[in-house]
Q: What sequence folds into this?
């Protein structure tokens, strides 16, 4: 099997749930503690061995490209001021030359269309799709491990309460293999009481390149958009799909509550911030 070297990150969304903050700044550049959301996602992918990051952008997203580029003026200023620690931190986060690519999704035609826009950059090899709104630390490492075991196509899933399944894409379960299981079907936002399981699709995928041919002919579905789920259902007729039950917690930073919880969780985990922040937080809550 070809190993997973490339990841597609769809970052063309408008971020309307965070207006006015996202009027002039991409939602992916909102910070969780002191790192943009998109940087956290790239960190996760790099830890899983991903080498090439393909960003599918839209208008007013140029700052994402700038973020992953060298800033000569900043580096020179830090060097002149003896800010060695800050320089080393920037160098550690800096992708190597040629490891980032950017392509445009000129129309908001959905996730499936965004993935299709990356077809020439991905080429004929399996690849990951990572939704930057969803912070799932360690998820891609678990995904790659599942791929190494099963091959085929992998979908990250998480359990949700049965009364919430109508809000998500839900998979049907076949044979189980510990943390993974065979996916026998998928449905987007099933009506209440009709979901085939309580495992929702949680924003991480490993897909075979044949998905591009299907996306190129995919009719519009829910929301009058080209849905990735619809193309995956078609691909399932010829290829195996497996669900990977993510062991961890996902924070949906596209929602205000998810974004705030991500900041709290990530801050508490930091050795340099966690103890002091916990004390401040506990004091604040007692006063309320």
A:
């Amino acid at each position: 099997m070809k190993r997973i070297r490339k990841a597609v990150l769809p970052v063309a969304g408008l971020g309307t749930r965070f207006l006015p903050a996202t009027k002039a700044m991409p939602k992916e550049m909102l910070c969780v503690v002191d790192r943009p959301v998109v940087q956290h996602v790239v960190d996760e992918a790099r830890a899983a061995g991903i080498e090439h990051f393909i960003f599918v952008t839209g208008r007013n997203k140029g700052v994402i490209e700038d973020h992953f580029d060298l800033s000569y003026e900043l580096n020179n200023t830090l060097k002149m001021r003896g800010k060695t620690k800050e320089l080393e931190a920037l160098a550690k986060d800096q992708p190597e030359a040629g490891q980032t690519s950017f392509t445009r999704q000129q129309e908001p035609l959905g996730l499936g269309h965004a993935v299709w826009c990356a077809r020439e950059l991905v080429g004929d090899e399996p690849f990951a799709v990572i939704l930057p709104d969803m912070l799932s630390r360690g998820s891609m490492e678990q995904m790659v491990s599942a791929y190494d075991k099963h091959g085929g196509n992998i979908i990250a899933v998480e359990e949700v309460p049965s009364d919430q399944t109508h809000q998500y894409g839900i998979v049907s379960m076949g044979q189980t293999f510990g943390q993974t299981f065979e996916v026998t079907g998928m449905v987007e936002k099933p009506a209440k009481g009709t979901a085939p399981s309580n495992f929702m699709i949680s924003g991480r995928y490993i897909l075979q390149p044949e998905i591009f041919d299907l996306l190129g002919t995919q009719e519009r579905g829910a929301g009058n958009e080209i849905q990735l789920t619809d193309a995956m259902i078609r691909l399932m007729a010829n290829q195996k799909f497996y669900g990977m039950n993510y062991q961890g917690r996902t924070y949906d930073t596209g929602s205000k509550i998810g974004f705030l919880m991500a900041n709290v969780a990530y801050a508490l985990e930091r050795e340099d911030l966690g103890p002091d922040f916990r004390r401040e937080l506990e004091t604040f809550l007692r006063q309320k």
Notes: The chain is about 35% helix and 25% strand. Residues 256-269 form the longest helix (14 residues). Residues 266 and 272 are 11 Å apart (CA to CA). The longest strand covers residues 169-177.
